[in-house]
Design goal:
With 650 residues, the chain is of the alpha+beta class. The chain folds into five domains: 6-99, 3-Layer(aba) Sandwich (Rossmann fold); 129-189, Dna Ligase, domain 1 (2-Layer Sandwich); 195-433, D-amino Acid Aminotransferase, Chain A, domain 1 (2-Layer Sandwich); 443-560, Glycoprotein, Type 4 Pilin; 575-649, OB fold (Dihydrolipoamide Acetyltransferase, E2P) (Beta Barrel). 24% of the residues lie in helices and 32% in strands.
Length: 650
């Protein structure tokens, strides 16, 4: 038995907090590591002690931190060094307990090419593939170029035709090298109408091995999962049994210990399944398995690492209800899901409906370019799939969040779509179904939100007043014009006029003839207001000149428009600007080039992912302001495309 009383978690954010939670429940003391960028991160407060390091990839420093703090074990979380066999071996050889599978198993499965060969040996079906770059075309089109190491959608490109292959291979190699330190790629047959289904396995050090059913993770953008669920709405009992047995054969061949995931691709038309890879770590989507089985996977990892037997057989594993998880990201679905940066100025999940929030951020947290932009994982568990999806959508809609652009509206559109509720959730779901990328309020909803913001502001001003604070807002001896506040949402201005009435309400409009409003309750955090007979409580957060107002349809951010405009520099027409901070890795045009609308002009690397910036219009490139290797900030001018209209007008 490898008993230990102190656990170091070699990770950050929500996964560090997740592991700390179970470790504390088991009576373990906990240690965190952190870099300068995480000095104010929430996960540090969850640990008993924290050690500053230079990088989450510095294995030697992490081991030194474990020794210095008396930690007897290291849990890697996921990402960073979680699937690094050399790090796992160094931990074990340093007389520390590694919470995970053996270094040999990690090495065998960390290389997807070697893993496919092992799957063949275990009689598990695989897709046609090759790791010989000179013969990628023999796989047939469409094909998928994939990184040999790593995962998370990095180093992955769909190739429809032969003329796209060279660019796809070059881009995938560059991204894989930046993300995993290994730029090897291979080609695999691409199945367009397919599902991504994975089997969770657990193995102990005594030969005990079970699977905990499947998760379907088919809804993806940029080859990264955003909604996961268990059980799959597609898999029947026969396929479920066959996939579980295939996963156990492969895990048995590896003498697998700890938690792991065997991933499969399922052809939506034929129902046939094919091996993709094994993840030798805890998965981001592990909570849905915990919900339907009642088994805490982190607890099992820690027990197995201490040498304990599972204590149950496959026949003892039971399943109940349905669980769905959504990943809330700082990203802009309306702009090809590009990652977003900024400071979270409001973050307050609603208490009802009751769901599980796994998050590492709060008000004041900064979403930068150094780490994955995931804000939270939101997990529901209900008796039926429809209830689970509905509760998750409602929890997201009722989340009070502001300061960064998120995919919240898109997630709710997916969860409430007829296709999702019918279980039609193939990997091409987003392109095929085209859920709304954002919530667009109608004129009536915008008006109510604007009035709520304006009346919250007037009450806040009276609350903070130091001169005659008991007088009502706008009080005068004589009758004067209505009070006015100017707001803007997405650069669309709205002016709210209001005048206090003797009955305590407000008349709306310049002449008081555009409706009535009444504030039933106000606090610095919300306002209960009735507008034209419709009453709602809106949660409000103010950050400088912004008001984040959350109502029934989500969060609207209103910009307070100053009475006098501030001069600013205008971008030239046809400007291509950086949507986020990052590094320029490729400039595909030069001054004088003719470009088409939609043509890739610059490739920008941010958060270890490549983002292809495209021309919004056809025309001639007149200026190129950046070069390969440049580190740029958000909104920096990259190049200018002249469509010829200005010239012809003159």
């Amino acid at each position: 038995m490898s008993r230990y009383s102190t656990l170091l978690v070699a990770n950050r954010g929500e996964i560090a907090r997740r592991v700390f939670r179970t470790a504390r429940a088991m009576g373990l003391r906990t240690v965190a590591v952190f870099v300068d960028a995480d000095t104010d991160a929430l996960f540090l407060a969850d640990a008993d002690e924290a050690v500053r390091i230079e990088s989450y990839l510095d294995g030697a420093a992490i081991i030194d931190a474990a020794r210095a703090t008396g930690a007897g074990a290291v849990h890697p979380g996921y990402g960073f060094l979680a699937e690094n066999a050399d790090f796992a071996r160094a931990v074990s050889e340093g007389d520390l307990v590694w919470v995970g599978p053996s270094p040999d198993a990690i090495a065998a499965m960390g290389d997807k090419i070697a893993a496919k060969a092992l799957a063949v040996e275990a009689d598990v079906p695989v897709l046609p593939s090759t790791d010989d770059p000179d013969h990628f075309e023999t796989v047939g089109f469409p094909l998928l170029v994939k990184a040999a190491a790593g995962g998370g959608g990095k180093g992955m490109r769909i190739v429809q035709t032969a003329d796209q292959l060279a660019d796809a291979v070059e881009s995938a190699r560059r991204e894989a090298g930046a993300g995993f330190g290994d730029d090897r790629v291979f080609a695999e047959r691409y199945v367009a109408r397919s599902r991504h289904v994975e089997i969770q396995v657990l193995g102990d050090q005594h030969g005990g091995l079970v699977h905990l059913g499947e998760r379907e993770c088919s809804i993806q953008r940029r080859h990264q999962k955003i909604i996961e669920e268990s059980p799959s709405p597609f898999i029947d009992d026969a396929t479920r049994s066959a996939m579980g047995e295939a996963a156990l054969r492969l895990a048995s061949l590896l003498s697998y210990q700890s938690a792991g995931t065997v991933e499969f691709l399922v052809d939506d038309r034929s129902g046939d399944f094919f091996f993709l890879e094994i993840n030798t770590r805890l998965q981001v989507e592990h909570p849905v398995t915990e919900a339907v089985t009642g088994i805490d996977l982190v607890r099992e990892q820690l027990r197995i690492a201490q040498g304990e037997a599972l204590g149950y057989e496959q026949s003892d594993v039971a399943f109940a209800g349905h669980s769905v998880q959504a990943r809330l990201y700082a990203e802009d679905p309306a702009n090809d899901f590009l990652p977003a940066t900024g400071t979270i100025e409001a973050f307050e999940p609603h208490a009802d409906p009751s769901v599980r929030w796994d998050t590492g951020v709060g008000p004041g947290s900064v979403i930068g370019t150094g780490f994955d932009p995931m804000i939270a994982k939101v997990i529901t568990h209900r008796p039926t799939r429809t209830e689970a999806a509905g509760a998750l959508a409602l929890a997201l809609e009722r989340l009070h969040i502001g300061g960064v652009v998120t995919n919240r509206d898109f997630l709710t559109a997916v969860l409430r779509s007829d296709a999702f509720l019918a279980g039609d959730t193939t990997t091409d779901f987003i392109d095929r179904v085209e859920p709304a990328r954002r919530h667009d309020a109608d004129d009536h909803e915008r008006r109510r939100l604007a009035v709520a913001a304006a009346l919250w502001m007037q009450a806040a001003n009276r609350h903070d007043a130091v001169t005659l604070p008991t007088l009502p807002s706008g009080w005068r001896i004589g009758r004067l014009p209505a009070e006015r506040i100017e707001l803007a949402h997405d650069d669309q201005p709205v002016t709210v006029h209001y005048r206090p009435r003797r009955d305590g309400g407000f008349a709306l409009g310049l002449r008081g003839d555009e409706g009535r409003a009444r504030v039933h309750r106000w606090s610095p955090a919300d306002i209960d207001v009735e507008v034209d007979g419709r009453r709602c409580t809106y949660r409000v957060a103010r950050a400088h000149d912004r008001l984040h107002v959350t109502g029934a349809g989500g969060t609207f951010t209103w910009q307070l428009v100053p009475r006098f405009s501030v001069p600013h520099i205008e971008m030239p027409g046809g400007a291509v600007t950086a949507p986020m901070p990052g590094k320029v890795v490729e400039v595909r045009v030069k001054a004088g080039d003719e470009v088409e609308a939609g043509q890739v002009v610059v490739v920008l690397e941010a958060m270890k992912m490549e983002n292809h910036l495209r021309a919004a219009q056809p025309g001639t490139v007149t200026e190129v302001r950046v070069g390969v290797g440049d580190q740029i900030e958000k909104d920096v001018l990259l190049l200018v495309i002249d469509d010829g209209r200005e010239t012809s007008d003159r």
